[in-house]
Amino acid sequence: MNMNRIKLNQLLGSRRVKKRLVLSTSHGKYVVKKWINRWDPIGDFFDNHLTASIIPMRPPEGAGYYGSDVKYLVRLLTEDGYKKTIPVYLSDYNYPRFEKFRLTEESLFSQENLEDFLTNQAINGNLKCINVEVIDADQLRKKTYGHDFGESFEAKHYSWFFYVFVGKLLTVWSNIRLYFINRKHQKSNKVLHQTRR
């Protein structure tokens, strides 16, 4: 085997060639069965409303992946052109986030205070960079995701019995309720259209 490109299109497209998908996993070789049943959690949700489809929210390119506890993002530009982003939390005055100095409670009070503090540290030679930019992570989340994560939900564990039986009953009740709500709206729309004519 060498470092040349190997084209597999003709082999994969041929009906005469037996094809198997073999995955290399941390548990060793895994040969995938011939038929893989497709699955989508949205279909499971309509069968049981206790099923939740949780999709991770990914920021656009350049923003990076940071949790919801981050208060500020500090972007440093070094002399050699290297850009470094450092997450800063409200409790970082207890934690040595930088090598030669510690953040103070006053510096973490606002975005401007932190930017002034870091600029002074760069002027004093404690922070080696040519540009300091402080970004408010809350504002970045609002702009990126369209909301501010003001309301969050804690996932709950339900027993198998509760999920299968009670969840199914709640789903039937929800579907009946939605049916009558939709029927009421259809009647009101019909009446509205008849009065306009």
Task: Considering the chains and any ligands shown, give keywords for the structure.
alpha+beta; three-stranded antiparallel sheet; two-stranded antiparallel ribbon
Could you please describe the fold and organization of this structure?
It is built from 5 helices and 5 strands; from the N terminus they run αββαββαβαα. It is an alpha+beta fold and 197 residues long. Among the domains are: 72-145, no CATH class; 160-197. The protein has a 3-stranded antiparallel beta sheet. The chain has a two-stranded antiparallel sheet with strand order 1-2. Strand 1 (22-25) and strand 2 (28-31) form a beta hairpin. The longest helix is centred in the C-terminal third of the chain and has 37 residues, at 160-196. The mean pLDDT is 83. The chain crosses the membrane at residues 160-180. Keywords: Membrane, Transmembrane, Transmembrane helix.
- Major sheet, described briefly? 3 strands, antiparallel
Strand order of the largest sheet: 4-3-5
Q: Uncertain runs with pLDDT below 50, 5 residues or more?
A: none
- Which word captures the global form? extended
- Average pLDDT metric: 83
Total number of β-strand segments?
5
Distance between the termini: 77 Å
Instruction: Quickly count the helices.
Output: 5
How would you spell out the order of helices and strands? HEEHEEHEHH
Protein structure class: alpha+beta
Rg from alpha-carbon coordinates: 28 Å
Keywords: Membrane, Transmembrane, Transmembrane helix
Transmembrane segments: 160-180
